[in-house]
Design a protein that fits this description.
The chain is of the alpha/beta class. It contains 15 helices and 11 strands. Strands 1, 2, 3, 4, 5, 6, 7, 10 and 11 form a 9-stranded mixed sheet that branches. Helix 8 (205-214) packs antiparallel against helix 10. The two termini are 34 Å apart. 48% of the residues are buried.
């Protein structure tokens, strides 16, 4: 099912928009304008919440759980106007006004372009469409990374954010523990050769077969679970593996541009968030008018920010999060959950009690 079909399947209203960025990418934007809870008046203007997904996911990550544990549906039922964005290159944002999807030019983007073009295009459209001057922003993983960049470099967009909710925030990966990502980092030349400078882990029927047919089987389920844990961190008791298998089958977005992956790798062994390094002083001079890629100064982000992190998170390590928190000047809330890994913020069995309920409480207190 596509995102609209998932929303409709659970009986929620949906709207779909194609958003064109300034550099020509056509992005899928989805809306759940209201929920199924009758106590809210469906004609009343609702406060807007925008949800931004992570690196290897799409907007479906917010609605792949059951409605009472999916943040997109929970917020709609709580009376909010919910918008779900899809970054360029995901299954629902693979079109361009003039570039072909299989061209190298189409896949020539990193976090920089997503922060410079994608988020502003989404947020501008939502603000203009709803007439609301400020909106709530919720990001998971990469959804926080690009927000840190956008909100610290584009004040006009930052002014439109009422509160930034950062789940498993990724700012630097100096202390990253994921053995799978560390292995991929060492195999960069191999990955570059096989990707053809386009996309890494492209969406294929074989990959969909693994996610939807093999992983749900008991004999293969253990292997799939171990694979996820090697990437995101171990949590055998709280992570809802039934829904992660469902997520694998409905979310065929496990592909990223090579450039974006290399940008992620450039955060290794660094306690700073930097723009994409083009590989030589001459190339950086051409792109940035300086020999090194510039640092994104998150301390300039003038947005009230609430953060949640997990001690078992292999991607957003607690030590990296600690560095990030020292950079955030308008931190209004932080919570560390001792047993959470990177995916628990989407599929934890107790994610409503541990995270989502807090988010709604903060929103209601700032409405």
């Amino acid at each position: 099912m596509n995102i609209s079909e998932i929303i409709s399947y659970w009986g929620y209203p949906d709207e779909v928009y194609d958003i064109v960025t300034k550099d020509g990418y056509i992005l899928g934007l989805y809306r759940i304008p209201y929920g199924k809870t009758k106590k809210f008046n469906n004609t009343a203007q609702r406060l807007v919440v925008y949800l931004q997904h992570g690196l290897f996911t799409s907007a479906s990550s917010w609605i792949s759980n059951l409605p009472n544990n999916s943040l997109g549906f929970i917020l709609a039922d709580a009376g909010y106007d919910v918008w779900l964005g899809n970054s360029r290159g995901t299954t629902w944002s693979r079109k361009h006004t003039y570039l072909k999807t299989d061209s190298k030019e189409f896949w020539s983007f990193s976090f920089d372009e997503m922060a410079k073009y994608d988020l502003p295009a989404f947020i501008d459209f939502i603000v203009n469409r709803t007439g609301q001057k400020k909106i709530f922003y919720i990001g998971h993983s990469q959804g926080t990374t690009i927000a840190f960049i956008t909100f610290s470099t584009i004040p006009k967009i930052a002014e439109r954010i009422k509160i930034f909710f950062a789940l498993a925030p990724v700012f630097s990966i100096k202390y990253l523990k994921s053995p799978f990502v560390k292995m991929a980092y060492k195999l960069k030349p191999v990955i570059k050769a096989f990707s053809g400078n386009k996309e890494f882990l492209s969406n294929t029927s074989f990959k969909r077969f693994i996610g939807s047919k093999l992983c749900p089987l008991k004999i293969f389920g253990v292997l799939c679970r171990e694979f996820l844990f090697m990437i995101y961190g171990y949590d055998t008791k709280n992570l809802n593996m039934v829904r992660t298998n469902m997520f694998s089958s409905v979310n065929p977005a496990l592909s990223v541009s090579l450039e974006r992956l290399l940008h992620f790798f450039q955060l290794f062994n660094s306690d700073q968030l930097k723009a994409f390094d083009w590989g030589s002083p001459a190339q950086n001079l051409l792109h940035y008018n300086q020999k090194e890629s510039p640092v994104y100064n998150v301390s300039k982000m003038n947005v009230p920010t609430a953060t949640w992190s997990g001690k078992n998170d292999y991607l957003a390590d607690p030590d990296d999060v600690r560095i990030l928190l020292s950079e955030i000047t308008k931190s209004i809330y932080h919570k560390t959950i001792s047993y959470y890994n990177h995916l628990d913020f989407l599929f934890g069995l107790d994610v409503y009690q541990k995270v989502y309920h807090d988010i709604i409480d903060i929103m209601q207190a700032n409405s």
